[in-house]
Amino acid sequence: MIADFLLDDLVERALAEDLSGGDVTSAACVAAEERAVAKAVAHTELIVCGGNVFARSFYKVDPGVRVEEVAAEGARAKEGDVLWIVEGSARSLLMAERTALNFAQRLSGVATLTRKFVDAIPAGSKLRITDTRKTTPGLRILERYAVRTGGGHNHRDCLGSAVLIKDNHIVAAGGIRPAIERARRHAPHTSRIEIEVDTLAQLDEALQAGAEIIMLDNFDSDSLQRAVEKTRGRAIVEVSGGLTLSRVEELAELGVDIASVGALTHSAPAADIGLDIERVG
Prior knowledge:
The chain has helices spanning 4-19, 24-29, 51-61, 90-119, 140-149, 167-173, 176-186, 200-208, 221-231, 248-254, 263-266; strands at residues 35-42, 46-47, 66-69, 76-77, 82-89, 128-130, 163-165, 193-197, 213-217, 236-240, 258-260, 273-279. It is an alpha/beta fold.
């Protein structure tokens, strides 16, 4: 779960998009004293995620609103399941509804897609599914949490958290060996040196230079098998580049250590969740 103080700024900015001019419809149609109960309902199968930020969206509008968790974070929900129940001022519920659902639908969508990738890993495999930095600007902390909720793992959190030499670094440094040697001289002693390679020739050079993690980018199946065989026992093997569910079993059987999947965050469809309000009076 993400701490409330980390959510406050995100929630306040999201609410401001909807409420900078107030809610003229609710103010015109709904009496100030009207109270209501609303149920957040799954309209399809999904992995539940985002309960904290869902609730926080209502609390920021009205601290008097009560949100009850019905389905636990990470649980599998089926169509028609109630996920959360919200009770309080009808106007407040209407004002926060869209923001709360936007967060919950986005995070549940990421968690649901991640769980599909994790479920595709054969039993007993060491393969680990991770995300990438291809996240929605400003929402990384939430989307990475959703990946963990779905059973996946997080890659480096930011540019300052790990050494990862990519193709543009190699060009700027003048080659694979100088890039690795400079990284080793300047990186913290706690950091492993990871490098992305596009060919078997680059792989050989990276291994000779002492890279500790090899990212095999966009390798076809034949080249991937040869690359894993060359690297086994010498470095951690990570595979990236347009990975789909259909390749998970293959990667696991080859002995790949890590599959980094940008689609977990940049292409996950939003989960279908609705908020049904019941008038209480």
